[in-house]
Specification:
It is found in: Mitochondrion. This protein is α/β, with parallel strands linked by helices. The chain has a single domain, classed as 3-Layer(aba) Sandwich (Rossmann fold), CATH 3.40.50.1440. Helices cover 31% and strands 19% of the residues. The protein has 12 helices and 18 strands. The protein has a 6-stranded parallel beta sheet, sandwiched between helices. The chain has a 5-stranded mixed beta sheet with strand order 10-9-18-13-14, with helices on both faces. Strands 15-17-16 form a 3-stranded antiparallel beta sheet, with no helix packed on it. Helix 1 crosses helix 7, helix 3 packs across helix 4 and helix 5 runs parallel beside helix 6.
Amino acid sequence: MHEIITLQLGHQANYLGTHFWNTQESYFTYAEDASPSPVDHNVHFRPGIGVDGDETFTPRTLIYDLKGGFGSMKKINALYEMEQDSDAGVPQGLWDKGMTIQREPLVEPIEYQRALDTGLPPARLEPESVRYWSDFNKIFYHPRSSIQLNQYDLNSEIMPFESFGLGRDLFNQLDKEHDLLDRDFRLFAEECDQMQGVQILTSAEDAWGGFAAEYVAALRDEYSKTGIMTWGLQDFGRVTREKQINRTVNLAYTLSNIVPLTSLYIPLECPQSKLPGYVNLDPTLQWHKSALLSVAVETCTLPTRLRNTLGAGRLGKLDDLASLLNVSGGQKIATLSMTVHNANPSASKLGKPSVPDEEFGLSWDSGGCDFNGMAMRARGAQGHKSHIFAITEVVRASDDSRARDVAAADTSQLSDDNHDAIFGRYLTSFTYPTIDSFPSIFSADRIIPAGGTTARGGQRLSVSAKLTTSSQVIPRLKSIKNVASRVVGVDEREAILNDLGECIEGFETGWKSDSDDCDD
């Protein structure tokens, strides 16, 4: 067994994490005569005992959010709560006066959650009903998984949790009081028979980047040989120039502190444009954006928990994935892309209208940052020849032959310039389930009807997801370095520029680039 512990840091990360865990829950098979699930649940779930003595299975995860970020979700849920007398907890004989208890108003659960609590079929989720990530959550967590940080309020205008330094200081303050690894992480780590790695979901452009950076440093000190995969979430929405510069500076700090210590760092962003015609989402809704990202994240990590795969090899651990993509030790940043395939490819051959299978990126493109219309692109970004170091692809198709056809088409697209790229592919007929908590963001021609080998026979998607290490990240890194060189204070500037420079060198070493020197 090779267990993975997941850290979710921040409200944005918890939206993505909720989609991830809802999908994992859908893989469980409860009927006695059902065939075993292709997914090894022990990788991401921990066994336990509930308050009634029954066995429980809860995620190996730590969920951090600010005050007010958990919505209607209770820390003690139905698996662990006990009925208590109304006078429980009041010391008898120490106080003979009346007591007045003041409580903050509770967030009422939406109809979807009330239906889940009563065991009824859940109501359809509408975009306006999703206020928090907990509104579409379908899973019970261990009470020690949920950690609310009361020092800051969610979406506060008085004390916004936006600066990298605030997150760094908050972690150090809490760590001095409690030792966060001892209080929060070690319980889950000690339950593992053979922990293979840590998966971190975090915002990268605000204070959570600072919190994550300190957390990664603490983990690396304590678990020096453990694989750490970090997913850095970025908001691609248009904001004022000043706010975008602040976000970029926070991102520079995050990359400088996390990339050297992590096994693999994957930037995540949901572009408002450049999406294919079969994707129909509202870019203002975190529920929609996180759902799109979750399909790719869940798919490209599927081999780490899948019992069997087809094709040329299998990745069973996070370290295997990181070592394949990090060819020479200097490529620790990978980009993510995805294709959702036509559910009925034969229909287009018969002349029926259909949007083609178009691959789209969910990470950095080859350009620089655009600060509210003010282009700040690195010279040489346009048209420079890129070099691919490695690609790992997971293909989930409705049947084995379809998976092989998709994989063959993808291989043929590699250019002669990248013939030496390392290519790992993993094929499976275990398609992605679109459960009732998942928004309708894909056109009807992408949805495979209910039935077949999927989670409880529901509707599903045929998906390909790729992680790629290539020189395409160089222009973006140079743009970030450019901004940091002008904005970051003198005391920290040199260290950040050196760290970012080393990241860039890692993608320039071993091949000849035709691009110009983009540093100012």
